[in-house]
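User: Predict Helicase ATP-binding domain-containing protein's structure from this.
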Amino acid sequence: MHDQCLKLAKHGISACFLGSGQPDNRVEGKAMAGMYKIIYVCPETVLRLMEPLKKLAEKPGIALFAIDEVHCVSKWGHDFRPDYRKLSVLRQNFCSSKLKFLEHDIPLMALTATATLPVREDILKSLKMSGHTVVVLTSFFRPNLRFNLELHR
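Assistant:
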């Protein structure tokens, strides 16, 4: 998360990360005051920040929740983490039926490169994704990744 924030800063985009690795204890307050365009938050911290996040959703607003490495949600995934599984609270708490100031539910995007069919089904169920959820599958081929091998004899 820290590396992603540094890269965004180089492009003039204000970003921060919240979690146990954050050395500056003022960053969380600034984030909840809406001072960053992008906030990276570990699952454990999301669960702790439910009420401040609701206030942030009202003003200035939250455009999207993106869960990276979402295979960690699944009990069938190779990196299962219990706090990931609890992220269904995002779906439950950030919907227009709960927060009357919202015109629509805050979208939830789930991203992973390693989800078998049972893992994908478990993710959809665990995160309480709607029947209208679009699942996009792409190739593992990534043209931006390159490997160079040098043979030494």
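The chain has a mean pLDDT of 89.
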